[in-house]
Amino acid sequence: MPEWLEKWLRPDLLHLQPYSSARSEYKGSAHIFLDANENPFEHHGLNRYPDPLQWALKQRIAAWRRVAPEQIFLGNGSDEAIDLLIRLCCRPGTDHIVVLPPTYGMYEVCAHISGVAVVHVPLQADFQINVEAVLATVIPQSKLLFVCSPNNPSGNAFSLAEVEALVQGFPGLVVVDEAYVDFSAQPSALSLLLRYNNLAVLQTFSKAWGLAGIRLGMAFAQPELITWLNKIKPPYNISQLTQEAALKALQRLVQYQDEVRLILQEREQLANALAQLPVVERVFPSDANFLLVRVTDPYSLYNWLVSQGIIVRNRTNVLLCEGCLRITVGTPAENRQLLQALANYR
């Protein structure tokens, strides 16, 4: 094991004997499978366990994202990768993760479930990172730094230079969560993988691909780290149906690109229209498929929209988001209905 990886892993896991599933113990091809105690009768191709390492899907993703298949971990949503990275690197009661609020809440939830402390370094008032403040918090027990870019709920992306400065200065693993990267003009941190070992990049099929229902997330990192994630994951964490749905989706790149383009057009039009409404005080710039909007009375407006059958997210209790609603960019028709409802608010 490389020295750079050994210093991040929990010492008690270094000699872990991972579970060996029936389908991971043979190489090559076969036509009779009597190894996994499955029902032998055909059930729409689902009577057999799926590929535990999802190689066919990883090869397609690798070609799309221009990485090696060995650099890809697939999880039950990005949340599984977040959870596994914390469990892999952090000793309960000893180590901690660093988060930059306001940000995605599951980093902190997963840490608390594992008995891992959380250090908060808030973003600045303009939702930008104070790189010096982040690096000033570092101690030997700082194992993971989570950077959400574009950030949820603020919607802004951080510059690649800022991300790289954090990767260079943080002694542990920097996890860049790029769930919304397809909607951003900022380049992906995937371009940094060739230069840095202490970087993992998370992406998902839930947003731009329109496949939130299949729960498929991706983690990109050095092959040695991916090997360890595979060691501690459940044997068959990605179902056959999920793998097939993602493979089919990757055949329709043009549709994916067209939908992203339409969402970006709608985002701009929606932002401009919201800014004209009396109830709206500010529409924050967005690199994602949603807008953070400061309004005059978030609670009353939220309840009014609910009464009109429109659900947005009230973020007013989140740090730096006082008075704000988070509004996902919908279809053109949905966006028109939203604007009409807000215009009718009294």
Instruction: Give the termini distance in whole angstroms.
Output: 64 Å
How many beta strands in the DSSP annotation? 11
Shape: globular
Tally the helices.
Answer: 11
In order across it, which strands form the biggest sheet?
A: 1-7-6-5-4-2-3
CATH topology of the largest domain: Aspartate Aminotransferase, domain 2
Which H/E pattern describes the elements?
Answer: HHEHEHEHEHEEEHHHEEHEEH
Mean pLDDT: 96
Radius of gyration of CA atoms, rounded to a whole number:
22 Å
CATH superfamily of the largest domain: Type I PLP-dependent aspartate aminotransferase-like (Major domain)
**Low-pLDDT regions:** none
Strand portion, in percent? 5-15%
Q: What count of domains describes the coordinates?
A: 2
CATH class of the largest domain: Alpha Beta
Largest sheet: 7 strands, mixed
The share of residues in helices is 25-40%
User: What class do helices, strands and sheet pairing give?
Assistant: alpha/beta
CATH architecture label of the largest domain: 3-Layer(aba) Sandwich
Explain what this protein looks like in three dimensions.
- The chain has two domains: 3-249, Type I PLP-dependent aspartate aminotransferase-like (Major domain) (Aspartate Aminotransferase, domain 2, 3-Layer(aba) Sandwich), CATH 3.40.640; 254-343, Aspartate Aminotransferase, domain 1.
- It is built from eleven helices and eleven strands.
- The protein has helices at 3-6, 55-65, 77-89, 106-113, 131-136, 160-169, 223-232, 240-249, 253-275, 298-307, 332-343, and strands spanning 72-75, 96-99, 117-120, 142-148, 173-177, 199-204, 217-220, 280-283, 290-295, 313-314, 324-328.
- The strands form two sheets. Strands 1-7-6-5-4-2-3 form a seven-stranded mixed sheet, sandwiched between helices.
- Strand 4 (142-148), helix 6 and strand 5 form a beta-alpha-beta unit.
- Helix 3 (77-89) crosses helix 4.
- The longest helix has 23 residues, at 253-275.
- The protein is globular and about 65 Å long.
